[in-house]
Automatic annotation (TrEMBL):
It catalyses: L-glutamyl-tRNA(Gln) + L-glutamine + ATP + H2O = L-glutaminyl-tRNA(Gln) + L-glutamate + ADP + phosphate + H(+). Its main location: mitochondrion. One of its GO terms (molecular function) is ATP binding. The lineage of its organism: Eukaryota, Fungi, Fungi incertae sedis, Mucoromycota, Mortierellomycotina. It holds the Pfam family Amidase. GO terms for cellular component: glutamyl-tRNA(Gln) amidotransferase complex; mitochondrion. Its EC number is 6.3.5.7. It is found in: Mitochondrion. Keywords: ATP-binding, Ligase, Mitochondrion, Nucleotide-binding, Protein biosynthesis. GO terms for biological process: glutaminyl-tRNAGln biosynthesis via transamidation; mitochondrial translation. InterPro entries: Amidase, Amidase_CS, Amidase_dom, AS_sf, GatA. The active site is at 52 (charge relay system), 139 (charge relay system), 163 (acyl-ester intermediate). This is Glutamyl-tRNA(Gln) amidotransferase subunit A, mitochondrial.
Amino acid sequence: CLKNIAKYNQYTNAFVDLTQPDHIRSQAAEATRRWESEAAKSAVDGAVMGYKMNFCTSDLRTTCSSAMLENFKAPYTATAIELLEKAGVIMGGKTNMDEFGMGSHNVYSHAGPARNPFKIIDRSPDETKELEARSAGGSSGGSAAAVASNMCFAALGSDTGGSVRLPASYCGVVGFKPSYGRISRWGLVAYASSLDTVGTLTKTVDDAQTIYDIMAKEDPKDSTCLTERQRKAIADTINPIDLTKFSDQEVKTKPLLGVRVGIPQEFNVAELAPATKDLWRRGIQALKDAGAVVIPVSLPNTKLAVGAYFTLATAEASSNLQRYDGIRYGHQSDKNDEKDALYTHTRMEGFGKEVKRRILLGTYVLTSGSFDNFFLRAQKIRQMVRNDFDRVFSRRNAITGSCGNLVEDFENDNSTATRVHALLTPVAVSTAPKLKDVIGDQIDPVDAFLDDIFTIPASLAGIPSMSVPFGTCTKDGFPMGLQVMSQYGDEEMVFKVAKVIE
Ligand code: GLN
């Protein structure tokens, strides 16, 4: 890891703050001794991980890539990281991100943009001289770039509307967003609390599963984190796949027998690059070859999801970001000339352009004049998006008990043959764009919102979703991922399907 950090960090700008190499070495030596005496703390004892800059750690800064928190050192460590530390994981450093998680290309960062390492790895500077830098995706761009360039075994990201899955697709790694409430958000700086999840970036689906298992625990410090009792109740609702009608031989060779996977027709949007469509087709074939039944399904409210997401996420952000007032912690302006001036100057100086834009938008949708028209309407759409999913999944939603609006059909088992265990879609419309096309005023901020069209529905519904690398684009040779989603609480199904296509 240290060697690769020395080799690739300057170009990728993935790690913003690094743990002292000697400290990493001595922790690694201790872990080695534990392994040698068969006393390893876990399967990942001694592994080096990167943590996104919005996770609080009592070592290193927690800047959220913002001038507002430029010198902020948290007094405590996030629960997810504490659990990893208990398992022996070593912190390699803190990774670059879009300011407070707002963005899709890691270009809204006080630390400068992260760069996609894909064509850089193992090539000489001469070979890469002409290469135009590409987006690493965002907002967890630093975490994805760090894993893709082997600077760490895995990294934590946060996913509010796709921030783990989009960078994973662009950089060619696995990005996993568990169900909302699976992993404690204590110590993860809030962006939009009803959507924020702790996610992972790894090389393989197995690695994602290993670190997910370590972190997915009850935490009294986060009231939205599932209790052990709730976790058990959710597990009890998952019926095993019925394999009785298949021969032993078939079961052994085809890992997805009995699994039905849906292809949402509404994801076949006009903007989809032909190479992405082709990839999606190949993914479908791979699932069929593994024994899955693949059927078209409809999620009719998909096209409304982006508008609803940016209404709700900005509203929640405008509320969450009120705490940066220049008084309690973080940046404080030295201009304090008249009433309210300290607050105004602090926020003017501390927040970047995109964050300001979102605070204004969020404040606007919460004003009395627009609350009903925007905020409430967006909440209704969010419910419609959830219903869409509940209507296509063969399992009821373990939290709400909902099965869409077809209770009777569901009870009579009439519709189960047309319902599915998982969904397969693209993650992004194309491969990573060139940085110069997404930086500065090159891109209309509202157009940029469309980068998240495929990832946002799972965020609104709180369901688990994974971006799995699935080959490279025939045109530019950059990687692309496919997205696997399943019903709330059914992470195991996501892992099972993802393993077939990775
Ligand atoms: N790109 C989306 C946004 O800007 C998602 C970000 C995220 O998941 N943190 O809101």
